[in-house]
Amino acid sequence: GHLADAKGRRVDFRNSIIVMTSNVGGELIKRDMTLGFAAHIDGERKQQTEYEKMKENVLGEVKKDQRFRPEFLNRIDAQVVFHALSEEHIRQIVDLMLNQVVASLAEKNVTLEVTDEARDFIGNKGYDPDFGARPLRRTIQNLVEDPLSEALLRGEFLSGDTVVVDCVKEEIVMKPLVKETT
């Protein structure tokens, strides 16, 4: 067979990687996979053991699930089961997304500094075990971008200012950085 684009033209897939995702076995990933001896192993070995067991169960679920025909599965070169996101992963994702906000503000000559408390609050508020890190974008938009845009339009922050984003009493606050005079 062949694949065609929306206009009916044949598409060349010779040097391509196709990424397909599925949530088959997703309920297995959510479950605590610690069994028997794995409970006594510490740290990384424990996590690796739990991951291997979960991966084995998920791949078994893919094979026995009737959604994918065996002839389809035989054509797939590799199946990857991802690790669950850790707090450190969420923090890195928050940093990457906030760097996009920092870059867009730099064009307006406004500097943005985000405290560790604010980063952690955004990560906790935006991460959902069911949806992963997807809600983080919306959380950053609601907690940082929208209020900051409104403050810029009101003239609370001007070109050349440094805006500090902090978390005070479970709420994101923004204030200009007060430069010390000597």
What is the helix tally?
A: 6
Oligomer: single chain
Uncertain segments are 33-41
Q: Estimate nothing, just give the exact number of structural domains.
A: 2
The residue fraction in helices comes out at 40-55%
Share of residues in strands: 5-15%
GO molecular function, one term: ATP binding
InterPro entries: ATPase_AAA_core (IPR003959), Clp_ATPase_C (IPR019489), ClpA_ClpB (IPR050130), P-loop_NTPase (IPR027417)
GO biological process, one term: cellular response to heat
Protein name: Clp ATPase C-terminal domain-containing protein
Explain this structure to me?
The chain is mainly α and 182 residues long. The protein has 2 domains: 84 residues, no CATH class; 90 residues, Helicase, Ruva Protein, domain 3 (Orthogonal Bundle). The protein is 45% helix and 8% strand. It contains 6 helices and 3 strands. The protein has a 3-stranded mixed sheet with strand order 1-2-3. A hairpin with a 4-residue loop joins strand 2 and strand 3. Helix 4 crosses helix 5 and helix 4 packs parallel to helix 6. The longest helix is centred in the first third of the chain and has 22 residues. It is extended, with a radius of gyration of 23 Å. It starts with 25 loop residues before the first helix and ends in a 6-residue tail after the last strand. About 5% of the residues have low confidence.
